[in-house]
Write the structure tokens for this entry.
Amino acid sequence: MSNRPSPAQFRQASQQVAMDRREFLRAAGLMGAAAPLLGMTPLRAAAKPREQKVVVVTFGGGARDEETFAPDGQENIPHLIGTLLPQATFFTQVVNRGILGHYVATASLATGAYETFNNFADTSPANPTVFEYYRKALHRPPTDAWVVAPSNGFNRIGESDARGYGAGLGAGVILPKHLLAAAMPQHQHGAYTHLLRDNYEDPYYTPDLQGGEFELNQLDSMLKLSVEEFTHHARSLSSADELSVYVARQLMRQHAPSLLWITLHDMDVAHSGAYSLYVEGIRRSDRLCAEIWQTIQSDPEYAGRTTMLVLPDFGRDSDFDSGGNGFQHHRTGDALSRTTWMMALGPGIRAGAVVDRPVQSTDLVPTIGARMGFATPRAQGRVLSEVL
């Protein structure tokens, strides 16, 4: 007999997660008297400036409420709840009904359709990505859409295999770990293990972490960095996510892309079973999100015209589910591992508001399309009117 919850039980558990998040924040005085959003605020769209930019920040490896929004976890996310949340519309119940693997789940976020390929396969998404929709519909150049991501399989996330889209229409993908591996002599790699570790799940197959001429050319032609500058800065960093944000800032300075996707991955160290490193990854992700928002606000190319969307790809297992491993994994497929959240910040978006109704992770792509003015015909999700 299966222990998997029924759809009705899942909905009830997911709704409880959402209400707990609201109450945790209200009890801490973080939401004030903000009312829930039930629909689009009148006239908000009129204040939206032209030529919108969007920056998406995802966490490749979610964090549980116990270590984040719950009272004992809030000390780990002071920037998310103290700096970003008061400026954001907060979605308390974002449900991921797809495969809980980081590459395939992020691909689903980027296409607005649940992808079904092997998480560790070297493959492109089957459905068009948001980058392809954007560039094709608005006739944007290759330098206007970028992904900065961990290297485990993400090299194929920029463009799909979909007919009518695909090759030449996607985003440029920069894998900072590959860049660093290419920039350093092989004998020095051991000293940078904390920056080069490719994944924490130990699959049967993992693409080799190796550099090449293409990566080195990216340093010079795209990021305007010499090998010496790049490796020197890397020596001052404590994690791969810090390296990713450094690369993203260089992209913003050099090309000011209108659609930028950054995937942070440090908190997925939870798979190693080291709770302290998992919490450290949460704290670092919290700080980096605030730094990205600060960069947006201080850059004339981005300030006043940029939407930032922050969300995990999915959650993690409960300590009380016998089928999982608590914080370490995301194996059960229960409401805790599938119910995440999202913050939306930017011009015209209501600050300090809460959306408790359930939404899907596949709603992200249609919402970006509506925000930026392009259609996403093959996406499965719906537009979130609160972000328009």
User: Anything to note?
Assistant: Residues 97-264 form one domain.
